[in-house]
């Protein structure tokens, strides 16, 4: 649709339309805000990296002018997806697990050998795939040994990254005892050896929040799953509160381990957290594959947020004690964000299908619109970014995805299903982060894809060789 430039209205103060940096028009906009609006024939005005206005295009074009116009050609526009939890330095290891079967080599050996160069290569490969799949950010939970090696990927690729201190824990033995397939001596040797060492790591990345416009942000993270003492947890909780960020940790990945822990505590883990004063509105738990019905109201009342890893949940559903209630949590006003964890069985763009499958397998099906919310505003909430990201509203960061109107799945009947569940990377036409276009015609404009892939392959094969892993 041609832009009717002659229809620009003049503001009474200046006699000129308001100037902005970008106008996206001719779009079907899914706001994913509190009203869940669908704005047909919509437009977005962007100024200084934020949404200045969003409305039907005739109103935007009558009020704003811009030298940069983007015609969505009738395609759907929605907030960028955020991966709420991913072990980014392990992305290049996504196909190595089968090679470890029947050997003494574990993922712990792989992680124990990671160099800053390996983590950089892995993060760049993930960023390339994320952007092509309609993601505008991802959260690593503290499993990057060299955050300074990964942080530059944000500006190079044009993607938001949330990170924290590496492997903050003071009881690594709990992980070795309950998940030996994830550990090795070389890996655990890189963990803190005491509460004192863990406390020294805590908060080392928070300096990144001093620049409000930076694509890299930090939070407070503990590894969790009983690898942290109450003293360390309380210190992390207080630090997060003092800095206005969230505290995240793994909890309830293995239902059997949670039941074992509860037997030792003599009460449910969440009840113990509450009694110890360790539940707070700025806490986010990851996994939660065992949630009892009466614990839903506790989590909602305390303002705790939850990260849902659908593949991890599917792995646990057949095990004793598993009780997945992510959809119930979402419907009870507990913010839930969907995450890949480690995308071993599906690409990032299949995460919506995995979530729908996991919800159905748990006996509590989700709707496509709920999946869309959990991949956008829900994911933003789990990292404390919902005031800035996750929905398309004036004042928020201009992070959005433009879908091709000619893609085979885009009938327009169910936008949530067509974008957040069955819409793959082939439907993504453009991606904007902070108003800057980082994907054009489905390709990432800021990265040399061939070079990124080649370097990731070199890194993975060299690392596999170092740990004597064939293949």
UniProtKB/TrEMBL annotation:
Domain Amidohydrolase-related: 77-438
Keywords, alphabetical: Hydrolase
InterPro entries, alphabetized: Amidohydro-rel, Metal-dep_hydrolase_composite, Metal_Hydrolase, MTA/SAH_deaminase
Record-linked PANTHER family: AMIDOHYDROLASE-RELATED DOMAIN-CONTAINING PROTEIN, AMINOHYDROLASE SSNA-RELATED
Family to which this protein belongs: Belongs to the metallo-dependent hydrolases superfamily. ATZ/TRZ family.
Protein name: Amidohydrolase family protein
Organism: Mesorhizobium argentiipisi
């Amino acid at each position: 649709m041609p832009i009717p430039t002659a229809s620009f209205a003049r503001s009474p103060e200046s006699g000129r339309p308001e100037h902005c940096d970008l106008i996206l028009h001719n779009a079907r906009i899914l706001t994913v805000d509190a009203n869940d609006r669908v704005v047909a024939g919509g437009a977005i005005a962007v100024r200084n990296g934020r949404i200045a206005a969003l409305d039907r295009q005739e109103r935007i074009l009558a009020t704003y002018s811009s030298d940069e116009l983007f015609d969505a050609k009738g395609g759907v526009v929605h907030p960028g997806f955020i991966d709420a939890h991913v072990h980014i330095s392990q992305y290049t290891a996504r196909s190595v697990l089968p090679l470890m079967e029947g050997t003494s080599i574990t993922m712990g050996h792989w992680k124990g050998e990671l160099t800053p160069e390996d983590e950089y290569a892995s993060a760049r490969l993930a960023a390339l795939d994320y952007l092509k799949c309609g993601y505008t950010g991802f959260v690593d939970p503290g499993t990057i040994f060299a955050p300074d090696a990964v942080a530059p990927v944000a500006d190079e690729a044009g993607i938001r990254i949330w990170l924290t201190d590496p492997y903050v824990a003071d009881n690594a033995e709990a992980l070795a005892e309950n998940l030996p397939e994830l550990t090795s001596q070389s890996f655990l040797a890189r963990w803190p050896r005491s509460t004192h060492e863990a406390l020294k790591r805590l908060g080392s990345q928070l300096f990144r929040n001093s620049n409000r416009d930076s694509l890299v942000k930090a939070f407070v993270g503990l590894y969790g799953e009983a690898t942290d003492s109450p003293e360390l947890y309380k210190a992390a909780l207080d630090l997060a509160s003092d800095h206005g960020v969230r505290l995240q940790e793994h909890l309830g990945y293995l239902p059997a381990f949670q039941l074992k822990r509860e037997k030792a505590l003599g009460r449910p883990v969440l009840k113990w957290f509450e009694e110890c004063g360790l539940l707070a509105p700025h806490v986010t738990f990851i996994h939660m594959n065992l949630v009892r019905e009466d614990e839903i109201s506790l989590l909602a009342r305390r303002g705790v947020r939850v990260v849902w890893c659908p593949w991890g949940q599917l792995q646990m559903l057949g095990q004793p004690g598993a009780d997945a209630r992510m959809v119930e949590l979402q419907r009870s006003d507990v913010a839930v964000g969907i995450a890949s964890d480690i995308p071993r069985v599906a690409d990032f763009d299949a995460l919506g299908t995995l979530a729908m499958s996991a919800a159905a397998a748990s006996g509590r099906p989700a709707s496509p619109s709920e999946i869309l919310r959990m991949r956008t505003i829900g994911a933003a909430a789990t990292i404390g970014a919902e005031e800035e990201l996750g929905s398309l509203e004036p004042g928020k960061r201009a992070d959005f995805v433009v879908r091709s109107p000619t893609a085979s799945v885009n009938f327009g009947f169910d936008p949530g299903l067509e974008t957040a569940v069955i819409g793959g990377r082939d439907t993504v036409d453009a991606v904007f982060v902070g108003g800057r276009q980082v994907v054009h015609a489905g390709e990432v404009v800021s990265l040399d894809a061939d070079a990124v892939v080649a370097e990731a392959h070199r890194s993975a094969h060299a690392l596999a060789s170092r740990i004597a892993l064939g293949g």
